[in-house]
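Bench notes, afternoon.
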Amino acid sequence: MKLVFNSGEKMEVEIAFSSFQYNDEVAYQGVIHDISQRKKLLERNVLLSRAMEQSPVSIVITNSEATIEYVNPAYERSTGYTFEELIGRNQNILKSGHHPSEFYAQMWEQLKNGKIWQGEIKNRTKNGNILWESMSISPIFNTQGALEHFVGVKEDITAKMQTLEELRIAKEKAEESDRLKSAFLATMSHELRTPLNQIIGFSGIIPQMTDDDSIIEFASQINKSGNDLLALIEDIFQMSMVEKTPVVLRRNEVKIKDILHQLKIYLEELLVESGKTDEIRLDYSIQESLIERSIITDKPKLIQALLQIIKNAVKFTHKGVISLQFELTPSRILNISIKDTGIGIPAEKLNYIFDFFRQGDESLTRTYGGVGIGLALSKKIAEAMNARIHVTTRENVGSEFTFELPLDENSLL
């Protein structure tokens, strides 16, 4: 019952009455016990019991030898065993055989040392189905410090593990597909280059063997188309190599003027091949302080990135000037700029011209060839070098692409 004192304080009490003889009369005595704390403990135990019974995660309590003493309904549902089938059985009733003995030895060593063990276990249900569980096991000690029980809290993660396994298999298939694609493209590149080299070679010497203008014209067209096709094949092969794999840099010391010289050769060759030598003037400049300086970089990769930009400058410029400029900023950034007076790029196209297979003109009646690989390749190389490519452009006025290569104290010699 509950007593209420004058102060308003309430107390849960237990009262026991008894009678006895006192001076030839019947007397009564009452004993009042304060059971407030005991009742609170009882209510808490009821609450904990309900929480365990209604918990959506599995809970198991075993003795110190892992013999099961209690499981909640969620444990029964996940394992397929009933409460009666589990009580008195060892927890290893669920073992699937997936984990080696060392796995369990490490677990028990940690638990017996009074530490909580957490991990993922592959078990089996009563009907033999795989049951992956994320589990936390806590050792319980009595007041004397002796290990008495273990409490395990488990969550079924079977669906999650199945998803991860499916993703792993899909990843392996994708990687194998990429490997086969690269091998196929490498083979095709070799197989196509062989006949193309003959076509380009023979069509290149035909004009020297005849005075027939029509034959010379046809041979020139064959030679140009062969070179265009060879360039396309090389671009596709390069894309297959770097699209989904990191760019590996091999840095060496190289003179800046040697980079300029090599780019100058490529630019002049491209201009001759395009037949625009009479319409386009080439201009080169290098900051005087850079003429005898060297940098530590991957020269072939840097040339490759800049060459893609130079090819575009030649392709999209019909008359005017293409300039190549080398300049070092006070913040030690080497700016290599390719500027042209070509058709320019629409502002709305700038966001994706560096994406694979994206171009400024994607209409079905495009004037210019290409499949949208060059600038994407340049950007990937730039990122590997911790550089960036800055673009300024105006339609029908021209474009300027600047390869901004940061140089630390050890890179500029």
